[in-house]
Amino acid sequence: MTVLLEARDLVMEFPVRHALTRRVVGRVAAVNGVSLRIRSGETLGLVGESGCGKSTTGRLLTRLLTPTSGSVHFAGRDLATLSERALRPVRRELQIIFQDPFSSLNPRKTVRQILSAPYRYQRVAEREPVERQLARVGLLPEHADRYPHEFSGGQAQRIGIARALALRPRLVVCDEPVSALDVSVQAQILNLLKDLQEELALSYLFVAHDLGAVRQLCDRIAVMYLGTVVETADRDTLFAGPAHPYTKALLAAVPIPDPARERARPRVPLTGDLPSPLDPPTGCPFNTRCPKAADRCRVERPVLRAHATGHDVACHYPEETTR
Amino acid sequence: MSLLEVSELSVVFGNGVRAVDRLSFDLDRGSTLCVVGESGSGKSVTSLAILGLLPGAEVSGRITFDGVNLVAARPAELRALRGERIAIVFQDALSALNPYYQVGFQIAEAYRAHRRVPMAQARRVAVRMLERVGIPDPERRAREYPHQFSGGMRQRVMIAMALCLEPELLIADEPTTALDVTVQAQILGLLDELRRETGTSVLFVTHDMGVVAGLADEVLVMRGGRAVERGPVDRVFAEPAEPYTRALLACVPRIDRPVPDRLATVPPMEATR
């Protein structure tokens, strides 16, 4: 499969300002050296807990944020350095779906206006009528002249999806698209995303913290912790034999709807909290919570390197993968 | 006799919305009941109704706690029960805590609402409780403010506050929903451990069937304000009697089963009623 997007050594630093004087007193690296590849037609999952930088990475790939350093190669250009003007045509091929379906839809516009806005902004002819766009995401023609508040969360998310697809992008970044929805609605939206991928030959970057949803949709998965990717592997490898201790703990913490299994589960897979990104640990970012941390981990930061074919891990002492 | 008996409970809000509709269930001493449902199912409203925290809503039916009908209780009777015998932990610990006061003071204040002891003594109780819920360096942390705590640590503070008077019933309303999974696992482990030590009965409200599986003795599935199904946790998971319970179990992507091509979906409400 051809590589559709490749990000190299992405770094995003935000200024830290004093509460009163607003003077810049430091910098926090929300994303600290992320490299990843999305192949044509695949879904790459980006998982991690809050504050790990997964959403920021999604925004860097779509250039909603400009990285401090690093590159994003997409469609033959480096998005990280393109001017706003030069970016505009690229955005036709690169769209995003947001977590909160309501705050990402303008409450004063009808669905018709929302769904035709991409054509207006891009100054291109409407590819297809609004009714057809609505039908694709499972909504009805009469929904076209309603306002966002008249919809349920699941329906509003469908509108957000229809808008992202209006220009027929090649890559869609889905930033936690189901985490604000009820479980039964989540299943519908996950099914819809899968159907649309087949119908329109889409590639997705699926950013999420829910490992069940990620496993359902993704071909490959990258696990993030404190601004860096700690492990990447194809889905089945990652779930069957996680090599990074953090991935292992993350999988072990997911509650499983099976009472007998849950009772037998060893509780508390990880102790402590996520360290502050303002004051990250030296060496491996995970060393403060890692059950295997050794002296080397507190000094030397591990780089992401091949553990097995197609399986990369950033750990000095990765788990033996049993498969 | 059950510690809590709810019979024919209905809650109607001022705008005519019937949030809870003739709901009945009971909770035995020392056992854990998980109330599970999607948004709008009435699960949170039920927990607020037990504590009499629904001003302006019309609450009917009976909520019998240790022989006392809470629906008919006077405000002073309810105040005597709240915190002392029935405590609650909310989903959003940050908005449940007062940003202006040290967390140790807030726990001490809750303690002193029911025990006539000097502040210094109540503060010692607060520090001991913080230690018990696994907060490192509790002496120092008691003097800090809510914003200085992480989400998981704030929820530990809420649990410390809820348990400082050794209530007979702990209501936990989605206490881990806002937390990351690794922190959720810590909090669930803590709740389970404290429940074993104290014998407190727990009413745990959640939407997550995985969490239910780990905690519950009994399960109550709610939808549209009504009870859909009730039973022991093993039976409900192994042989769900109602189509909605089956659908709710089937629609969640699980990491312990082969990946299905499509996820099962839940039929609309009319079809299952």
TrEMBL record, chain B:
Pfam families: ABC_tran, oligo_HPY. This is ABC transporter ATP-binding protein. One of its GO terms (molecular function) is ATP binding. Residues 4-249 form the ABC transporter domain. Its main location: membrane. One of its GO terms (cellular component) is plasma membrane. Belongs to the ABC transporter superfamily. It is found in: Cell membrane. One of its GO terms (biological process) is peptide transport.
